[in-house]
Fold this sequence. Notes:
The structure is a homodimer. Chain A has one domain (about 1-65, about 95-140): Beta-carbonic Anhydrase, Chain A. Chain A is about 35% helix and about 20% strand. The first copy, chain A, contains six helices and five strands; from the N terminus they run βαβαβααααββ. Chain A has a five-stranded mixed beta sheet with strand order 2-1-3-4-5. The two termini of chain A are about 20 Å apart. The relative contact order of chain A is 0.21. The interface between A and B is large, with 41 and 41 residues. One zinc ion binds near residues 6, 58, 61 and 63 of chain A.
Amino acid sequence: xxxxxxxxxxxNPTQFFDLDGYEAIVHRNxxxxxxxxxxxxxxxxxxxxxxxxxxxxxxxxxALTSTDEQIxxxxxxxxxxxxxxxxxxxxxxxxxxxxESVKEDVEWFRANPLVREELKRHCQGFVLxxxxxxxxxxxxx
Amino acid sequence: xxxxxxxxxxxNPTQFFDLDGYEAIVHRNxxxxxxxxxxxxxxxxxxxxxxxxxxxxxxxxxALTSTDEQIxxxxxxxxxxxxxxxxxxxxxxxxxxxxESVKEDVEWFRANPLVREELKRHCQGFVLxxxxxxxxxxxxx
Lengths: 141, 141
Ligand SMILES: [Zn+2]
Ligand SMILES: [Zn+2]
């Protein structure tokens, strides 16, 4: 199993999925954004032939607190204008709703032409409740 | 402190840096590649004003076992030709030498125009010996 989760310390799959850390490979980035984990999923799938992917976002995530536009403006304010295109090129991955963002990520993954068909069918999304520590599967389609 | 480390289960900074998981934010991707962590560093720096970045690669890393070209060929073999450009566009981040890759990542980070100057000065690189669990700082320039 490969897990893609937010890097928030509360969102640690080895804890809430009760894994010992060796059963699963855990990619962690801001928000648990699948787009930014695609390289890893593809290289790991090549090396180990993954059988499952879990995408885990969580309530109270920092990615819910600002928009891409706010992040871009903030960074542009201290960066030379000649590099603004680089700021615009980054997919910042802000979220509006955590369940929606999980759904979108699962759908994006399943629609991605670089992913093995069988792996697409074994991609699931979850929302962690940061208060209770409970994880709920998100129904997609 | 923000840490960028390989997602290999042996390369877990909360273990070898003796952190309780709440002192540090840990981004984990294949190899511990800083390029693929830039979005996170920038958004986290915006939210928390980071004071340190540690880049940690490790001996015996999977990223040392194949070249970008091998990964690309492998994926192209099962992907429709119309999507080969997407395969080529991904920076796969294969490594030849783990110390060199840490050095290159630190240098890349320090040269990146989107990163705050002060944060650049507080970026350090480390190599974890996967056998002994010892972490060694890599001197850069
Ligand atoms: Zn989060
Ligand atoms: Zn590794």
